[in-house]
Each structure stands twice: as C-alpha cells, then as structure tokens.
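Ticket #4471: structure output looks truncated?

Reporter: J.K.
Steps to reproduce: submitted the chain below (727 residues) through the standard prediction queue, then opened the result file.
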Amino acid sequence: MIITLNKIGVTTLIILFWTKLASADMALTESQTDSLKCNKASCYVESAGSFLLTAKINSTVFENNGIFLEDITDQTTLSIQIGDYIITKFLGQANKYKLTKSSVTASWIESQNVCTSFACDKTKPFTFTTLTVNGRISGTSTISISGKNLSTETKNGSQIYGSKILAELCKSSKIGATFSKPATISVNGIDLTTILTGSCKQQSKAVKKLGVSYNLTSAKTTSKAPISINALAQTTLINFAGSYEGTYSGTDNGTVTATIANDGTISGTGNSAIDSSYQFAITGHVDASGNVSLIGSGSAGTATFTGNISQGMFSGTWSGEGVDQGAFQLSKLNSKPTIISGVVSISPVANSNVTVYSIVNGSKGIALGTGTTDAQGQYSIQAGFYTGPVLVEAINGSYTDPATGNTKQLKSILRSATVSANGSTIVNITPLSEATVFNASNASDGLVIANITNSILNATNLLGFDPITTQPIDPTQALPQSATKSSLIYAGQLGTVSQYLAENTAKTLPLAIADFADVFKLGNFNINPYITAAANNYGANDLNINGITSNFANGNNMMATCSHVLWCTGPTYLPLCSSKPVTKCVDPNNVVVNGICVVSNSTPITPATTLTKQWTGSWKITFPGRANPSCLFNDGGVMTMNITQNGNSFSGSVIAEGMEARRHSTCELVSVFSGNGTVSGTISGESVTFSMDPDGVTFTGSGTISGGIFTGSLIKSSGGSGTFNLH
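Returned output as attached by the reporter:
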C-alpha cells in the first residue's frame, strides 16, 4: 500500500471471517489500524495490521480426495490462497519440520528489518508471517497462518512490510458493499476450496490538521465460509475431461462416442452395426475415482453402462432389457495434456509463484496447477487435460525496474486470461495483460468468454498485437537477435508502466494498471497526459539502453521522437533514435531527477547505480598537525571501501593506506601505515556524502558516481583537504 496523506488520527479497520469449525471449515480474522505520525511541519500515516487464518479439516476429507500421509515428503508443497494473497511452501523449507508414521508438523517464519525512524537510520526485526501445520493420519488436521503488516512513510519513501489478505477490500468499498473471494488450500496440487463472502460497514468523517482537510474511514466486515468437502475432486474430474470414441460388443455391437465435461458430466451417442437405423443417446457421469455410470436411451429401450476410466481408457460392461449384455471400451481422442506457459514480466520476474485456474460462469474456478518462474521469468504448468478458458495469476518474485534500475518485489497479483486453453497454450503475464483481465472482470457477467475476447481484442486493435500471446523482450537488456517489432513495442510499454509509477508515487501498481485499462477500454492513447508523458520520458531515460519508446506516446499513435524504431526488424538494431527524446514533466512544479519527473524537494529517486560493492582506488589529503599546526601531514595511497547500501543510506569498512605518523616537535616522519575504520553516508541521485574514520581519524567526503567511477573531495574537520578516486 502506498501511503497518501488523506487520513488523520487513528483509524481501525477490522475484518472478520468466521465459521463454525467442523470437518472442513476455515476461519479468518483480520484487523488494520492507521495512526498519524506528525512533526511540527508535516504528518504521515503509519498503517499496521494483523491476521489469523485457521483451517480445521478431518483427515478423512484428505484421504477421500487422494491425499494420504504416507505420500507426504519433504518435497510436498502446501499452497494457501485467499483473494490476491498467496503463500506457497515446501515442507523441507520449514524452520521446524517433523514427519512420523502418524503425523506431520511444520512451521515457517518470515521476517525482515523495518525502519523505526523517519530517516530510516534505525531498524528492528519484524516477523510478518508465521505458518504452522499439524497433520494427523486420523482425527483433525490444523493449518494456521498468523501475519502482520506495516506500511509507513520514511525519509526514503514509502516502506511496506508483510502482507494483507482482505484488509484493504472494505476500506476501498462502498458502504454496505458485498463481496466474494475464493479461498484455496492446495496440497501437492490437489485443491480444497471455499468462497469467503461478506458485507462491509464503514464510517467516515472529515478532519482538519495543519490547515489541510483529511478524510477518516473505518470499516468492518464479517463472513462465513464452510469448505466444500467435494471440492478436491474437481481437479481429478478435469483430468478425465475430453472426447472419447470406441466400440461396444455382445448381443449387439457398434460404435460409441462420448464427451466428459470438466464437472464429470458425460454425454454422447451410440450407433448399432447390426441395425444401422438404430441410434441411442448416452447420458451419465464419472466420479473422482473414475467410476462411470451411463444410461443409453433409444427406440429399442434403455441400457446401463458401468465401468471405469484409467490412463485415457474408458471401459466396462453394459446390460439392456431382457438378455442383452456385453462390454464396451473407448479411448481418449486427445491424450495430450494442456500445458500453459509464458513469461511474467515488467522486466522478467524471477521466482514468481504462478497458478492456473479454470474459469466457471465468469468467475475464477479451481486451481489446475502451480509453478515458479525461472531467472528469465519463464514458467510452464501442466493443467491436466482441461480445455477451455483459464485465468493465470502471478505473485511474488523479483525484477529489475526498467525506469529506475532498482530491484523490486512483485507484491500485487498480475493476471492474464485466454478463452481456449488446449494442448500447448501461450499466456504471457504483464501489467498490460492484467489491464485486459481488469476490463473483462469489471464488465457485466465478469470473466465470461465474450468479455475476455472483447477485452483482448480492444487491446490488440490499439497496440497492433495480442498482449497475451506476444512475448516482450527484457527492456533492461540489450536487444536479442530474436526480437520482433511487436516484442520491441511491448518492451517499451512495460518501460512506460515503470516510468508512470516512478513519476506518480501516489499510484500503486494496481491503480496504475487501472489507468492503462481505461486507455484500452476507450481506445485512445491520449486520454491520460501522465501516461503519454511517461511514454516519452522513458524514451529519454538513460536506463532505456535500447532507446525504445512505446506507442502510448504522442505522435501517429506510435511514439514520440523515434517512430521509425518500431518498424525495425532483423538482428541489427543500431542507434535506434536519430535524436533522443527530451524529458517533459506535466506538472510545472516537477523537476527531473535521474530521468524521473518528481516533485521539487521531494525524496530523491534511489539511484540505479548501487554503492554495494568493493571500491578501490587512490586518495590523498594534506592537513596540519593538531599539536604542531606548522607540521603538514601528506596522507595518501591506495584506498579500499567495502560498502553495503540500504535505500539512500550506506555503511561499511574502509582501509586507507599511506597514513603518516610524525613527531610533534620536529615533524619528522616516523612511519607510513594502513588505517582501518568505518565509512557511512547517504546517496541522492548521483551525489554522495559520507564520513570515515581510518585509524580513528575522522574525514568527511562528498562526491559523485558516474560511469562506475566514484570521485570527490575530502575534508578534515581540524583543517586540510584532499581528493579521492575509486572504481
């Protein structure tokens, strides 16, 4: 959550999800509290919250759906998802883990250091998630997650720690709004699902502080959510889905065709080879264990078919009226599984958790499979033999932000959808694919095939390519020879999204994507001047090493200065622009810092060039002795700094060779030695200030970083000056 100063005082948000815990039930409680932090000149909001999720499930529920304790190993995956919140763990990764013949216990703890001061110069440990599992071969198994979150503003910008589940939902909803969110517990890809439903209550009031009016809100919601015991079976049924054909034999013989739907419903027809005029209709179902029950109805009467499905074979016996009986056997026509693959990218998002879902009646259905992206953001997930519309979601993972060069975490879900998953299916996941899902899901009837199709078509007509099936190149790397015009344009658009977020700091990624969704919906690149400016400014950004600019910029609905670039094809993408675009800020009060339009005197953008490394080079300084000011010390030689940067602050160690020791009375040089000490400071843009104390002697320094060179001046407080040059 990006904090904006639109609240004051202390606001408490409580969200309660409660159920009577029986054989398979879930309960979630969540609270969120905003408190105002002020000094004499300004205020900022700190938002703290916590949640507790518990699920109590009778072991027979797991066993009836194919989950047995003897199949649990340290490679077993546990995944829990509620709305946009998802956590996926391997048992072997647990902080504590014990597996016996009758039980499994495990716990995971996630923590990090958080800022405790406005300047973010002090931190403390913050445990934001604790997940525990207590499973038994008989009786009730318990899964619980406790979590905390903290969102606050510091001198270095908004800081966000931990995760919320549904805390923001009521906060942003209208009074009396109702909602439904799916919740899934998955063990080794087998899902147990429910729907959390609830209603919101809100209170709001206007308060004035420091001459500024703020709007206070508080909200509360309750929900009940019994888990469907049969929900686990749906994943198995999807694996049976498909078309089958074969023969029946006995007192009559002929051919049979049948189709199994994703819910296990079977329909088909049979044709007699003995009497070509005789046809019969087939109806029935298959259960999660593969047991088949069918009725054949025709002019000659009815027949009952019973059997089993295993490994794509559908076989059994049949009996009709009187003495008619025999056997049947059908084979699946398409035994190839459905495999969903693609890339998760703003730039490629590594180690992102990706889940493929069915879409049922315009809503997200059950999970068909899960996976994790590799270092290039690629994923591939087998979705059984499911065919039809799918929704693919990605959360977590890290990427290099194209506009700032900073490493960021994907904390908001990105989605993509297609209406025809079948066999090998490409589904790329980006902010622009999320914009198409956003528009489709907010249309009447939600994610139905027509809405998904229209939303993708609107984006395709505007962009010139399909944002779901087209794979963008990495905007932070040099162009590969395999790049196409479409993949090049796509990369420029991802850079534009990044630039838009950097220049509009009140926007979160979901809010920014909603703005891009409006562009697709209205079919006009120029409805949002801030998006247009971001497209132009990314073209001018030094981190845009390929010089690409997206077609969100002004000019022939293609781009600003360098429209010819987008038509390049082939392996040679040499200087892409004859002239570089000039960064333009929409707001007159904004200035350009590191290629980003920011509010004048605001917190600087963290530089893309990090100080974290070992810097080595030369230094020299001349200064008078304290006891004998006429005695000049000429320190200098090789200097080495080992620095670790955290935001706009850094610290580390320094070794300064060539420090002199002289006699106070005569100024005679006694020795030359190396001084060890510490170094710390801050960085703003390319400007660096620091202090260091080799051998206990304090020096202050200031300099700049450019082209990998760290250079500047040194001053000793008692007098004297010098220079340093490190790389």
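Triage note (M.O.): checked the attachment and the full token line is present. Confidence is low (pLDDT under 50) at residues 1-23, 227-233, 554-578, 603-608.
Status: closed, working as intended.
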